[in-house]
Specification:
It holds the Pfam family NAD_binding_1. By secondary structure, the chain is α/β, with parallel strands linked by helices. The protein is built from eleven helices and 15 strands. Helix 8 runs parallel beside helix 10. The structure holds adenosine-2'-5'-diphosphate (A2P). Adenosine-2'-5'-diphosphate binds next to strand 12, helix 8 and helix 10.
Length: 393
């Protein structure tokens, strides 16, 4: 007789198909088809290694089941099934205690489970997949950073012609690099945040932009950065159902980023510029880069009026000037940050280098506690209300 057991599952609506969990799992319990990434109940030994590496929290789903969902069932899901009613049993409870302890440990390194802002537009996800990708045409490839900085960040424009590609600000798409890996398998898509607003890089064109940094050994980033006008690119997605902007025009947005982590914030800013001209809650940005000429969109960003977007551009490697990180400037601006933290209209977004997360958290903690707010409780409540979003890599 099958005992009820706790099964580890992935939420297909929130999963962005980055395959990091699959690459991390030491027992190869995680696998994918063209549609979904799934967990094999027979192989998963609850080691929890996949929990902290998931950028969305979609990996952190559990159902008590009499019979585990099969791989084929999971491959077919568009959404997770609800927890079925099952009488509690001591077997499950014993398992729960041990698992809760493991999970608590794993969560220490995780961004936590994210939720979309309550007023966000419902996103479309997973419209195109590995078996049925969209084909986009490259209509632009501009270098955003100067040669002297050594950094090569590109603004890539992709046009989808007659194929629908409904993306919201904050969502990502996958690019499938051509060719095969060492085992002869097609390459998996790499994910890039869309940096244009929902009505297109050019308003009312069926196009979007990406902000891509060339990585020395990066298979896909080199492919993308070398694309020529007219080239065709295979695209999956859109992905992402939580790192979205509130539709409420009074909402205030605090955005913290490094490097290409600025991509979604360019989209947020352009959305507000186009859709809510003159009448929106404030947006504040802390943006870190090595130098001004390696900060993507430095010129255009400086032209965005301060009344729409308050910009704190900070630099870590200007010769003769002390290194400054985003968290250092947050401390300098602590009054403004404290004011935002205390306001239930505020949404916080953090995007960029994973290493920045710890420093930013510490700055928030210092600022919150100096005004008598308990940081962890504030953050967790904000996350639960869809007002705290982290996407780091
Ligand atoms: P640095 O590399 O000088 O230590 P880019 O993607 O253009 O390199 O920008 C990333 C920026 O983030 C750089 O200024 C980098 O500084 C900075 N950075 C690196 N580590 C951290 C960290 N732990 N916290 C905040 N910023 C960081």
């Amino acid at each position: 007789m099958n005992k009820p057991l706790k099964q580890h599952l992935i939420d297909p609506e929130i999963c962005i198909r980055c395959y990091t969990c699959e690459m991390t799992c030491p027992v190869e319990a995680i696998t994918h088809d063209d549609n979904n990434v799934v967990v094999d109940a027979e192989k998963c030994d609850f080691c929890m290694d996949c929990i902290p590496v998931c950028p969305t929290g979609s990996i952190d789903e559990w159902r008590v089941v009499e019979t585990p969902y099969s791989l084929d069932e999971q491959f077919g899901w568009q959404e997770l099934p609800a927890q079925a009613e099952i009488g509690s049993s001591s077997g499950v409870e014993a398992l729960d205690d041990a698992m809760e302890a493991l999970l608590a440990e794993a969560h220490k390194g995780a961004g936590g489970k994210s939720k979309a802002p309550a007023t966000a537009t419902k996103p479309t996800v997973n419209l195109y997949n590995l078996g049925k990708p969209a084909t986009a045409k490259v209509t632009g490839n501009f270098r955003l950073t100067s040669g002297e900085s050594g950094s090569d960040v590109r603004h890539i424009i992709l046009d989808f012609g007659a194929q629908p590609m409904p993306v919201l600000e904050g969502q990502s798409i996958g690019i499938i690099p051509p060719g095969t890996d060492a085992e002869g398998k097609p390459h998996l898509p790499r994910l890039y945040s869309v940096s244009s607003p929902r009505d297109g890089e050019r308003p009312n064109f069926n196009n979007l932009s990406l902000t891509v940094k060339r990585e020395v050994q990066g298979l896909c980033s080199n492919y993308v950065c070398d694309l020529k006008i007219g080239d065709e690119v295979k695209v999956t997605g859109p992905f992402g159902a939580t790192f979205l902007m509130p539709e409420d025009s009074a909402a205030r947005m605090l955005m913290i980023c490094t490097g290409t982590g600025s991509a979604p914030f360019r989209a947020f800013t352009m959305r507000r510029q186009r859709a809510q001209a003159g009448g929106s809650g404030d947006m504040i940005m802390f943006f870190g880069a090595r130098t001004p000429d390696s900060l993507p969109y430095f010129g255009p960003l400086n032209k965005v009026p301060e009344r729409l977007l308050k910009k704190h551009l900070v630099f870590s490697r200007i010769p003769g000037v002390d290194k400054e990180y985003v968290q250092d400037r947050m401390m300098v601006e602590q009054e403004a940050v404290a004011n935002l933290l205390a306001d239930p209209q505020t949404h916080i977004y953090i995007c960029g280098l994973r290493g920045m997360e710890q420093g930013v958290e510490l700055a928030f903690k210092n600022i919150a506690e100096s005004t008598g707010l308990a940081w962890e409780a504030t953050r967790d409540a904000m996350r639960d209300e869809g007002r705290y979003h982290v996407e780091t890599y």
